[in-house]
Predict the structure.
Amino acid sequence: MPIVNPVFFSKQYRITMANWFSFLEAQGATLTASNTPEVTSFGEAPAQYPQLISQTLLFSLDDRGSISCSGQDTDKLLQGQLTCDIRQLSESRSLKGALCTVQGRMVSDLQLCRLSSGDTLLVTHRGLVIRTLETLKKFAVFYKTSLADRSDDYQLLGLAGPEAKTLAQQLTGQTASDDNCLQGDGLALLQLGPQRWLAIVPADRAQAVWQQLSAEAKPAGLPLWRWLAICDGDGEVHPETTETFIPQMLNLQHTDAINFKKGCYTGQEIVARMQYLGKLKRRMYRLALNSPAPLPGSPIHLANGRECGTAVLSAPAGQEQWQLLAVLTEEAAAADVLRLGDDELAVQTLSLPYDAAFNNQQTGS
């Protein structure tokens, strides 16, 4: 298991988040009791999730952090380090990519936004901000670019549901139907899935923007957001799984997060070899089960005790129902029973939105 760097938070960050959480509690939020609180609900229970997902929902994404890259060589730096093609990044087009080791293992997954200021913002798991910064800084010394932890400066919000795009357009004053990044009035909204958007909001405006959005969207907790990500097949790297997966294990080749024509980047040889010469023995699947799903990084075993996979992301999905993204062998994905922790549990493999891409890849079409 890789060594995980400890997460350090600045005094200003702690003050900012304390104020933010106090505001959310006044709006009806329930928080986890920990050093890094998260919103678990605004009164909704998992049994209500299947009905709630037809509504437009608002989330506080307090498990996310952000890094800014600025300077004339920013694109050169990122082009040589990330799996996506930075030349395709613009103010109206966001990208998803991964930062890898030379062995092709993912340090972090990243959502990229080219802000109207010209800076490039990288959004990743909050617990991986420092590790991502440290990795990029090893190469940044050769370029005219500067990197900074901007988690103090931006509050990240989530919108999901049938009116999410309309709200994104209203916030920014932008109506371009094909853009996956809308910017205006100092805000940026990035489309993550068919009905999921990430809002990048200056911290000093977060409360006002939340109140504006909550008049049209129902606030909800992070567990529901994670279930929506699971349904979209949108896996992510956590501190517990950093340097565990190559990008194809999280299906990034089918979510436009890997560009196989862009040229060299750190880890590219391993990633390309797997795509063209290798056989992917494990990839991410979506599972349903009737018991609490394991946390990210938890090992998964076959009923005979043989190790067969790793948990990626889990969430409740209804009354005594859970769903799980897990990197598994084909044998495990076809099994009716898996050992999760000390328990043998019945599981069901569910579909992913891009399953057809795997079928086309196997048939060569």
